[in-house]
Structure formats: C-alpha cells, structure tokens
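Why does residue order matter? Because the sequence determines the fold. Keep that principle in mind as you read this record.
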Amino acid sequence: MSWHAPDDAIRAAFRQMRDDLRTELADRAAVTSPEPPRGAGPEGRDWDPDDVSITPRARGAARVWWSQSARNVQVGAGVGGAFANWQLPRDDTAVAAVRRVVDAAVAGRVQPGWGEVDYGGRLGVVRAGCCRVSLLDGTLLEDPSLGARQRARVFPAGPVEWGPWSEPYV
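Structure:
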C-alpha cells in the first residue's frame, strides 16, 4: 500500500486551495510545489507534486507549508529558525484547518519562541525554536512538541521566551 494520498476529493480541494492562494497572494508571497526530482533514485519515492510551500515576500512574515499522505495532513508554520508542525487526520475538515493556519500567517499571527534544549553529552545546551499560531477566531495553536519537551525537561531553564508576532503579508 502506498503512503501517497489518493487522488480524491480531498486532494482536489487542496489543489484548488493552492491555486486560489497563488492568485490571492500573487504580489505578497510565492506559493510553490516541488519540481519532480531529476533522474531515478530514492528521492522520487517521497516526491509529491501537491506538497505546498508559501514563502512571504515581507521580511519577518511566517512561512507555511503542508503535505498529505494516505492518512494524515501535516501543516507547518515558521518564522526565522523557529517552526511548528501539526499532524491532522486526512478528512473533510483538514482543508479548512490548513486554510485557517494560512490565514493566520497572512495576518501576522505566528509567534516564535525559543528555549534551551539539553541534549547532554557533547552537544550540551542548545537554543531551539518553536512556534504558536493565533487563529483569526482567537484559538491558540501551540507547538505540539512543546508540551512533550517541557514534560521531558529538555527545556530545563524554564519557560519558552516568546518573541514578537510575525509580520503580516503586505
């Protein structure tokens, strides 16, 4: 069984959203999908022409990306070196959920945070980034790995230091 998403109504809705965003954001961001890999090789197995990356033209604005598999949709947002990914069930609600993250990024509602991660050994303590997204309805999406990192005490120095919110796409 292939991990690739089937060619169904959900995939078609994601393609339509990608195409709509290319038009809506044409002068504010690049909305791209990956080019096919050159030649044969293992990278061709992971290539999906419907993966999407939105790169804003405004300095300090958040990037957004998404991809899908047979069971899940992964959406991410990031500013600078800080980012977060969310895994959603691949169902009828996924397209709207991804669109809400995109709309939040366009409005400048992605906030990067930094904390110290203790990897132990030679690496020692390293600063690591995470993000949270404030959706237009006020819902706050926290980085799903943040809670696990805090519970495992890999952010031993205390809470995450949240930076300023991202810039809107202008």
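Strands lie at 29-32, 52-56, 63-68, 72-79, 82-89, 110-118, 125-134, 140-142, 161-162.
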